[in-house]
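Reading is simple: each integer encodes one residue's backbone shape. The lines below illustrate:
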Amino acid sequence: MSKTTWLATVIVFFFISTISYSQDKTIDSLKTILANPKTSDMVRISTIYAGMSNSIGWSKQHIAFYNQLLPIFSKGLKMDHLTPKMKNEYLYAAGVYYYNIAKKETFDGSDKAPENYDLAIKYWKEAKNYKTVASAMIGKGTYYRKIADWPKTFENFFEALKYYESIKNEMGISHVNQEIGTTCIAQEDWEKAIVYLKKSLVYFDVPESELWKSDRHEIAVINNNIGVAYSRLKKYPEAHKSFLRAYEIIKPNKDPQAESMILVQLANSSSDMGDSTQAQIYLDQALALCKDDLSRQGVYGNAARVYYKSKKYEKAAEYGELSYALALKLKNIGARTGMSNLLHKIYKESKQYDNALKMYEAWIVLKDSSNLEASKNELAQQQLKYDFERKELQQKIMQQKKLTEVKLEQQNKLAAIKLENEKQSALETSRNKLAHQQLKYDFEKKTLNQKLIEGKKVAAIKLKGEKETAAKNNWLIGLSGVLLLFLLGAYFYYRNTKQKQAITLLEKDQIKQKLLITQMNPHFIFNSIDNIQGLIQDKQDKEAVDYLTKFSKLTRQILENSNENYISLAEEVEMTRNYLAIQQLLYNNKFNFTIAIEKSIDAETIFLPPMLTQPFIENAIKHGLSNKSEDGMIAIHFYLKADKLFFEVTDNGKGFETDKKIANHKSLAMTITKERLIGYTKNQDFLVQTDNILDQNTNIVGAKVFFEIPYIYEN
């Protein structure tokens, strides 16, 4: 088999695995979030990642998403007083940007790829994200493998292996072993290739029912490359068995490019075992599946080999030249080397000596440039270096552990001696103190006895005078006591009366709030039932059932919360989210919504009166977006300002008419809600503030309603 096939297999499978698909609606939603100027950096970065995941690899859309990271992390990393978490987010985003640039440059054959891989490694190391550091090293090694720089290829792969082992990432270890094995195939070191590739299969030793689509892809790649190694060792049955396993595992994925590469290998192994008819069937199936230059280059190369074995030299030369031209276009030195050698043999045996000489000269030049033998030694050197460093590290760890144990033992002994000395010293001190206290006690006792004798004489004289004085003052003390008792009784009676009045007032307030909520519940329920009835009349049974399910969940939340004076902000947000989901269904998904809570707010410890926000959200949908049939947007924001909690709802609808504002849109629910807010704040001048949102040309592009929400904080 020509080297064209081996390298094509490696590179095609590597890049196919990066492709993912998404629905257009998802991409449009993500673009809407990014277009919002109020979206924070962290949300923008997360949205860009989602956009990349939902785009086809290296499409204009995919590139456009990761290019948006550059201004975000460049500005973010220059900011002062970044928290460690935010700094790591910016560093990770920088790594993602440069890693994707490098992967695209690897795909295009640009020599700038290593420089950008190094930048990705730098940022990810600073963020201490060693899993991604290892993946960037694998990417860098893959670039060097593509240009046949074998020493740098192995150097990067083994560095990645060290990182994966240090963080005990089994999937990463499997992937590195696969890349090393695949590189051994490109070097024609077949025995080592099989060893490393089989190591990588250990990770996937699980029942097939538990495998993901990506797992099937990886298993197919590994088995395919094991088959290549067996075929070069002329172990054709083992090779054919590995190719069949690869084909069986990839078929459920419905991946035509991967299937075509494996079908080519099955054609080769069938030809090797003398079954030319089956080989031709496999080859025809593979050619029918080719969709791009990279897969065509590999399939054409293998077709040339199959026809060469069948001595159909004209067909063999035709497919060989096509494969060689594509390898030249893709700058794939290994593929050109293998195909030039095969074409030399084809032309020589078909007696086209000029063409044979031309291809022989090309093969010599390309073979010398790849320096295969030197690179094989590099693998052995890297393996020895890796084993030595790991062993040396383990020895250092053991030595450090022993030193730590000895040091700890010495510290324990010293601490025990010190403790014993302190005990002895304390005992001696306590004895001295006891003797001193005894002497002091005896002296003070003698002095006290003398004073007691003298005091008794003085007390007898004083007692006599006091009895005479007490007789005169008893009547005055009695009168004062009666007066004091009267004043205390009056004070406690007054305080008890005030407390009862305050409790009665509070209970009246709470009853009023519950009555107001009770007034609003029927309004919402009747509106919702009308909506369900409308769906049924329009024969939208499925939508009606879906609406009814969500409505029942929301109704349960509303009825439960109606019995509470306060609920947590988290519960209010959950109830609002369910309400908006129902409204989306009702309005045929003509709008999207976002709910944002300022990071400084703990939604579980902030408590507020229930259902204060729903009427204003309903107004934004029903009236604000009345001119919209699609692409509507409702944005809800809870934030703190001067320790006051504010609610804000914005829409991208027709806005308020300057002379009418929100006054003409007051519903019963909004009137009740304002009464509740006045009740809670005790402020008759309470104001719900409204504003139009203007663009650069002062055109109205939406509306905003915001007001303060009374709340309590529970620590």
Summary: The CA atoms of residues 538 and 544 lie 10 Å apart. Strands lie at 567-568, 591-597, 606-608, 632-641, 644-651, 689-694, 700-709, 712-713.
